């Protein structure tokens, strides 16, 4: 796979399923290092590294959900002969993961075994009220409200200035994203959310049920928007059961893509 876009943390087992992970707004591939360690060796995590962060910080960030999804979908479709995969997206990453799955389905390419959508409500024709901060200070306020590891670093003006270009692009992508009705996915979906998330109610997350014809399960964990930082073992267990279940179902159906 393209090492510029997909980052791997360690060597997987030969028969490990691949999990493509999409970071949250302002996030980078390294956000999935803990999950990768928890899933190893059964699942190989490949985290997407968006332009404009970490070692890609000198590149111009992509401020469009659909464009990011199209790039990733194109790279996944080009690897038809590679390992079967599932998709996992957290917060903004859930939208990119969903759009990636939708593009793959529309192109008739190999579909993901399962789609994991975390800390994000089902999309609609307009952005959510928390997706359109008015300026840089509003962006930083929104990020602080969500919490997460290292959020206190934003109180340092120099560090905040370093991450703001990526945050501006990501919030611009959220503010301009508009879901358009199309055929539902044929991919099983697992929705994950925290019971105390300040911006995503459980019922909003459960709204993803109508976006696929396949089975949807909703898992609610104690915690806020970044519940997975505290519930890593439970999240890893949910992912592992989900990918194994989807793989078994595919094998039983004799799907042509596998």
TrEMBL record:
<dbReference type="InterPro" id="IPR012223">
    <property type="entry name" value="TEII"/>
</dbReference>
<dbReference type="Pfam" id="PF00975">
    <property type="entry name" value="Thioesterase"/>
</dbReference>
<keyword id="KW-0378">Hydrolase</keyword>
<dbReference type="InterPro" id="IPR001031">
    <property type="entry name" value="Thioesterase"/>
</dbReference>
<dbReference type="InterPro" id="IPR020802">
    <property type="entry name" value="TesA-like"/>
</dbReference>
<feature type="domain" description="Thioesterase TesA-like">
    <location>
        <begin position="20"/>
        <end position="243"/>
    </location>
</feature>
<dbReference type="GO" id="GO:0016787">
    <property type="term" value="F:hydrolase activity"/>
</dbReference>
<protein>
    <submittedName>
        <fullName>Alpha/beta fold hydrolase</fullName>
    </submittedName>
</protein>
């Amino acid at each position: 796979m393209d090492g510029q876009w997909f980052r791997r943390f360690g060597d997987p087992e030969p028969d490990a399923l691949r999990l493509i992970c999409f970071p949250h707004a302002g996030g980078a591939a390294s956000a999935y290092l803990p999950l990768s360690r928890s899933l190893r060796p059964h699942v190989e995590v490949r985290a997407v590294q968006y332009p404009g962060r970490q070692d890609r910080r000198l590149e111009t960030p992509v401020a469009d959900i659909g464009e990011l999804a199209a790039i990733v979908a194109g790279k996944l479709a080009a690897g038809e002969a590679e390992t079967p995969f599932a998709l996992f997206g957290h917060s903004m990453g859930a939208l990119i993961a969903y759009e990636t799955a939708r593009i793959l389905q529309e192109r008739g390419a190999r579909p993901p075994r399962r789609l994991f959508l975390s800390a994000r409500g089902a999309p609609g024709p307009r952005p959510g009220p928390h997706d359109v901060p008015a300026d840089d200070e509003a962006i930083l306020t929104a990020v602080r409200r969500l919490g997460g590891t290292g959020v206190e670093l934003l109180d340092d003006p120099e560090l905040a200035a370093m991450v703001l270009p990526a945050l501006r692009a990501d919030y611009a992508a959220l503010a301009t994203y508009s879901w358009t009705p199309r055929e539902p996915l044929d991919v099983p979906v697992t929705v994950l959310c925290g019971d105390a998330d300040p911006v995503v109610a459980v019922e909003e997350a459960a709204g993803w049920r109508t976006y696929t014809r396949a089975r949807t399960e909703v898992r609610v964990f104690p915690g806020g928007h970044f519940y997975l930082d505290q519930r890593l073992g439970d999240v890893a267990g949910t992912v592992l059961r989900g990918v194994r279940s989807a793989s078994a179902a595919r094998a039983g159906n004799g799907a042509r893509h596998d």
